[in-house]
Amino acid sequence: MDHELSPAAQAMRDHLAARFPDAELTILPPTPGRISGRMSLHVARLKLPRFGWIYATTGLWDATQKHGHALEFVLHASIPEDDLHVETLTMTAWYHALGGDHELGLGHTVPIGRPWLPGSSCDHLLVSLPYPWGPELEQCELPGGHARVLWLLPITEAEKIYRHQNDLEALEQRLEDAGINPVDPHRTSVVAEDEIGGLPRKRARRFLRRISGRGPARPSGTP
Prior knowledge:
By secondary structure, the chain is of the alpha+beta class. Helix content is about 30%, strand content about 25%. The chain has 7 helices and 8 strands; from the N terminus they run αβββαβαββαββααα.
């Protein structure tokens, strides 16, 4: 079921289907709440033959494109927790669509406000190149423009701080050297707390309440 996708969202869906021809692709219902009044955002779920599930935004381009260019995001998971993953992508899309200081790009980080999956120490996302799938996924042609598809990689708060104290390449090298399994919700942080002087606890729960229509809030954290 396509849930009245826009032409750009349909093109994103077709792009995913072409990149993952053996996957079972489903367009999930949009998340209720305030975001529905700002953009027509849907999330595609792909059940891969191996290596879990991919969740992807479809329709973010319509709300954020500039001169025909914009971003769409994918999240790779080992567990098909539809409600959580749709909420995570919806929050990130809303954050990005606010523009200005909230506009996301390669190497930026965004707080989730909770573990990305129950029991995980990863409660932030790193906007990364889609390394596991290459430029074939990253480049998506759309009617009237182009979308760059970027990967939302769950990271710990210590890893987020390390990225901002150093740079994106330094964190990516740490992750690569550790040989992390990016879909393992229980993976160990590659950055120890004592390396970055402790963890200033900042939460984004009020932001989640805002996009779901449960109360006003300002987003927390910075790219």
